């Protein structure tokens, strides 16, 4: 959505609320999920732009429903990723360095927040999704999902390095 901030800039309003959705998976927008992830619903965006005696700020929350696979055990997972950010709103031409991440730039009274959301989402969306923090993953030998219990593969034992040398000598015997 492109927000019209004219009334905020000229002081007629002190805040502008907004709430809308961005479609995903269409060719019209750039919201492309990372590999092995699909976004299952439109992105829900809610936020406010405020003007406090000339200091303008944007606060925004975006909710993104996704489906994917656990990076460790490969089980199907789904969830909601919440993207939150706050930015100072600056009028184009008033900043020396417009590439500063703390700012969003208003051009001719308008602010394209979709672009800000897409950029930040690409940066913040986790590259590794897990079914749970303590996911035990798959056995590297038999492939069993260890979240459902241990497999029968022999477990590697922690061996004292000095004993390991001794054991190697014995094995070579
Ligand atoms: Zn897992
Ligand atoms: Zn195993």
Summarize the model shown:
This protein has three helices and eight strands. It is of the alpha+beta class and 173 residues long.
Number of strands: 8
Work out the helix count: 3
> What is the count of structural domains?
2
Q: Per the principal axes of the C-alpha atoms, what is the gross shape?
A: elongated
> What would you call the structural class?
alpha+beta
Distinct ligand kinds: zinc ion
Q: For the residues shown, what is the average pLDDT? A: 88
| Proportion of strand residues | 35-45%
Main sheet characteristics: 6 strands, mixed
Low-confidence stretches: none
End-to-end distance = 75 Å
> What percentage of residues falls in helices of 4 or more residues?
10-25%
Taking Cα atoms only, what radius of gyration do you get, to the nearest Å? 25 Å
String of helices and strands: EHEEEEEEEHH
List the helices and strands and how they pair.
Elements: E1 2-4, H1 6-9, E2 15-22, E3 38-39, E4 43-52, E5 55-69, E6 76-91, E7 103-106, E8 110-112, H2 113-124, H3 161-172
Bound molecules: zinc ion (2 copies).
Description:
This protein is an alpha+beta fold and 173 residues long. 16% of the residues lie in helices and 35% in strands. The protein contains three helices and eight strands. The radius of gyration is 25 Å and the shape is elongated. The mean pLDDT is 88. The chain binds zinc ion (2 copies).
